[in-house]
């Protein structure tokens, strides 16, 4: 089974660490691993402070809240994103203003950004889609500075190649199960901006942690998902997966409340020590995973570059997923699933997932034409895969 969406990061060593922690409940809520994980993260962002949360969306919510913006302030965010970015904005009574994407790195388009600025624009969120470096990064940063907007870089899709960026505002990270490093749930704010550090520090110590059954399910996820992946080809995995989801043993990435278009306070919590334990194991092999992702991207560029006239600006970076645009996307996804190859469709709606109420999110149809077009064609190839698995994916296109 080759999977882009289901537990792409979880390997046997992750499953073992998680399984052991299941029998050490005294380590689940608080512990020294939180400090150790924080220090490891700080080594990627020297001179910055790291604040952990239960999810990337929780990090964004608390960051925006700490800015104490007047109600109705505008937050510029790109279309071709997910609801986890938009719900915190709406929950705080702020107004998301959607900026179209450019076609090279699927990040904010500079011209459209300039058109959508107003005197109410207070925050600008730049997304590194799949981990690609936005082609207008410098210009967008300058625009934020010129217009006195608070600058947030959304590094949920990866931060391996971002050291050259000066984060003079803040960055938001995610350690969700489908991201570069997985602690199943997790997120962080990275900043060196002193103006709101104090309030974030006190928030960190006072924030509620998720309930014990929630932490139990986080720990169960890694061994369970590894078992499912290993036995999927023999049907057993498929059955166990179905049962686990239906009886709630696997907590979905997007809650029922979020699917209805509401911010879910259950995911707005502090990060439990159990997640820090899982994160530390992933951090221990971060270089190895990044190298693998980089190798995948290089090979996809080389082999698929012959087939696709215009590849995205992937630049041999260790991307979370390798994007390609195909005409018959949904048909292809279904067809290759029969071969046990599950490709991704981030993002198949301007604010994903499909079915999310765009009207409620304040998106005006036709306001981001490029994003709307890309949503129908985008296909994501997995990058955290072996050479053999990569060859199977490449073969799909060569046929
Ligand atoms: C671009 C982007 N930013 C932020 C998030 C939020 O991360 P989390 O799922 O940890 O809340 C996501 C989630 O998929 C995302 O795709």
Draw up the topology in text.
Layout: E1 2-3, H1 12-22, H2 32-44, E2 49-53, H3 56-66, E3 74-78, E4 81-82, H4 83-91, E5 95-99, H5 110-116, E6 121-127, H6 137-146, E7 150-154, E8 170-174, E9 187-191, H7 197-206, H8 212-231, H9 236-246, H10 256-259, H11 273-283, H12 286-304, E10 321-325, H13 329-337, E11 341-342, E12 351-352, H14 369-375, E13 378-382, H15 387-398
Parallel strand pairs: 1-11, 3-5, 3-6, 4-12, 6-7, 7-8
Antiparallel strand pairs: 2-9, 8-9, 10-13
Structure description:
The chain is α/β, with parallel strands linked by helices. It has two domains: 194 residues, Type I PLP-dependent aspartate aminotransferase-like (Major domain) (Aspartate Aminotransferase, domain 2, 3-Layer(aba) Sandwich); 113 residues, Aspartate Aminotransferase, domain 1 (Alpha-Beta Complex), CATH 3.90.1150.10. It contains 15 helices and 13 strands. Strands 2-9-8-7-6-3-5 form a seven-stranded mixed β-sheet, sandwiched between helices. A two-stranded parallel ribbon has the order 1-11. Strands 4-12 form a two-stranded parallel ribbon. Helix 1 runs antiparallel to helix 8. The two termini are 19 Å apart. Pyridoxal-5'-phosphate (PLP) binds next to helix 3, strand 4 and helix 4. The site of pyridoxal-5'-phosphate has 14 residues, from helix 3, strand 4 and helix 4.
